[in-house]
UniProtKB/TrEMBL annotation:
Belongs to the TRAP transporter small permease family. Part of the tripartite ATP-independent periplasmic (TRAP) transport system. Residues 26-160 form the Tripartite ATP-independent periplasmic transporters DctQ component domain. The chain crosses the membrane at residues 21-40, 52-69, 90-111, 139-159. It is found in: Cell inner membrane. It holds the Pfam family DctQ. GO terms for cellular component: plasma membrane. Keywords: Cell inner membrane, Cell membrane, Membrane, Transmembrane, Transmembrane helix, Transport. This is TRAP transporter small permease protein. GO terms for molecular function: transmembrane transporter activity. Its main location: membrane. The complex comprises the extracytoplasmic solute receptor protein and the two transmembrane proteins. It comes from Rhodovulum euryhalinum.
Length: 165
């Protein structure tokens, strides 16, 4: 089972290697927007929306990696002072009872909207924008799946005999 967890980790690690370049692209595009608008008096709704698309892609697809490297936000006031065994139990409970069911629910309830968006090839958010809202909505199930896979990898490790927090 450890090999399965390693494979699941590898998915998010590999994806993160490519996604980090989206942050660079986002800064460069935003800089070009500012220079274009204030220096040359040129503006493009589609280019402005591209920053939104880059940000959404980066945020949604990197969530699994954030969980992998344990840099997500913890809202557990007892976790910091807990013993390793208690931390392990908190983590198991959090993944099995809170995270996995909530991701499954989000995936289930968002799927009709994503499917419909693809069916009609949903157009731009704003007039003159990028005609690919259906692609941005596809990030929702991708987010859910990547977080579910990472959560399963963490659970596999937590449930092994002798596992620590």
């Amino acid at each position: 089972m450890g090999r399965v967890a390693d494979i699941l980790d590898g998915i998010n690690r590999g994806l993160a290697l490519g996604l980090r370049w989206l942050a660079v692209a986002m800064v460069m595009v935003q800089f070009a927007i500012v220079v274009g608008r204030y220096v040359f008096g040129v503006n493009s709704i589609a280019v402005q929306e591209s920053v939104l698309y880059l940000h959404a892609t980066l945020f949604m697809l990197a969530a699994g990696y954030t969980l992998l490297v344990d840099k997500h936000v913890r809202v557990d006031v007892f976790y910091a002072r807990a013993s390793p065994g208690a931390r392990r139990r908190i983590d198991i409970f959090g993944h099995a009872v809170l995270l996995l069911p909530s991701m499954a629910a989000l995936l289930y309830w968002s799927w009709p909207s994503v499917r419909n968006s693809w069916r009609i090839l949903e157009g731009p958010i704003s007039v003159g924008g990028i005609e690919a809202v259906f692609l941005m909505k596809s990030l929702i199930p991708a987010f859910c799946i990547l977080v579910i896979l990472q959560s399963l990898a963490i659970l596999i490790r937590l449930l092994r005999p002798g596992a620590r927090a």
